[in-house]
Amino acid sequence: MVTLAVLITCHNRKGTTLSCLGRLFSIRKDIDVYCVDDNSTDGTADAILEEYPQVNLIHGDGNLFWSRGMRKAWIEASRSKDYDFYFWLNDDLVLYDYCFDEMLESSRIMDHKAVIAGLVQETTTKRVIYGGFDKSLHLISANGELNEVYRLNGNFVLVPKYVFEKVGFLDPVYHHDLGDVAYGKEAQRNGLHACTSRRYIGCTDAALQSKNVRKRLNGVSVVKRFKKLYSPLGSNPFITFHFLSKYEGFLKAVVFFIYVHTINLLPDCIWSRISR
């Protein structure tokens, strides 16, 4: 029997998380769910225990964010059982009935030697919103085929056992973002593949997506601007340097490091002119 582990990390959006779990178990019951609640203050953890006691609930300290939260869930899952497949799942995604079949069949086509990024469409417009980017940094739309990605989105991702044994967990260097992108690139560096699914596997509301500005926050003091830049929700220069130097070249990493510090030192009036 095939064994599946679904990994989720959540923080302070109880309704969204519970809705996700309900949808998940309505589609497939032969799954083990590992959910990291990153110290939510809205009662998420208690609600999960009450409504879905079958979930393996793991508590965070409030400072894990996405990459480290998913890594924590993954470590716990791998210690519990030798799973055939691991799925990453963002709790704001509404899965379609056939999502697991599509992902597993996509993996089978690749002889289970690929990371499969599920293509996600926006709820209202039905346009692609997540999944993977090509080398021109354009989102790849569903076209009935598996498409190799240049940058991978981690909204709903399948990692087969073979890939996990080659690549391992998400890199702990990454706090919030870039962990998913790096994992796809690490798989490719190991001679494996990172591909999109053939069909859309779910949808999400664009209004729920973060409008976070990572590189430069406007309308605040320089101190606050740099505090945001170096926060998990910013574009931490050292973490980004690590990513770029490893996968896109040392020179590009140096240029980005200088650039991101420079633009955060500029007054808003100057930045607004040169960034038009």
Topology, element by element:
Layout: E1 4-10, H1 14-27, E2 32-37, H2 44-51, E3 56-59, H3 65-80, E4 85-89, E5 94-95, H4 99-109, E6 114-122, E7 128-130, E8 132-133, E9 151-152, E10 156-160, H5 161-167, H6 179-189, E11 193-204, H7 222-229, H8 237-247, H9 250-265, H10 268-274
Parallel strand pairs: 1-2, 1-4, 2-3, 6-11
Antiparallel strand pairs: 4-10, 5-11, 6-7, 6-10, 8-9
Produce a short descriptive summary.
This protein is an alpha/beta fold and 276 residues long. The chain contains ten helices and eleven strands.
Question: Could you describe the 3D structure shown?
Answer:
The chain is an alpha/beta fold and 276 residues long. The chain is 39% helix and 21% strand. It contains 10 helices and 11 strands. It has helices spanning 14-27, 44-51, 65-80, 99-109, 161-167, 179-189, 222-229, 237-247, 250-265, 268-274, and strands spanning 4-10, 32-37, 56-59, 85-89, 94-95, 114-122, 128-130, 132-133, 151-152, 156-160, 193-204. Strands 1, 2, 3, 4, 5, 6, 7, 10 and 11 form a 9-stranded mixed β-sheet that branches. The chain has a two-stranded antiparallel sheet with strand order 8-9. The termini are far apart.
Sum up the structure in keywords:
276 residues; alpha/beta; 9-stranded mixed sheet; two-stranded antiparallel ribbon; 11 strands; globular
Please state the average pLDDT score.
Answer: 95
Q: What's the SSE pattern?
A: EHEHEHEEHEEEEEHHEHHHH
Strand runs, count: 11
Helix content: 25-40%
Largest sheet, in brief, is:
9 strands, mixed
Cα-atom Rg, whole angstroms? Answer: 19 Å
N/C terminus separation: 56 Å
Percent range for β-strand residues: 15-25%
- Principal-axes shape call: globular
Query: Total number of helical segments?
Result: 10
Category by helix and strand content: alpha/beta
- What multimeric state do the chains show? single chain
Which regions are unreliable across 5 or more consecutive residues at pLDDT < 50? none
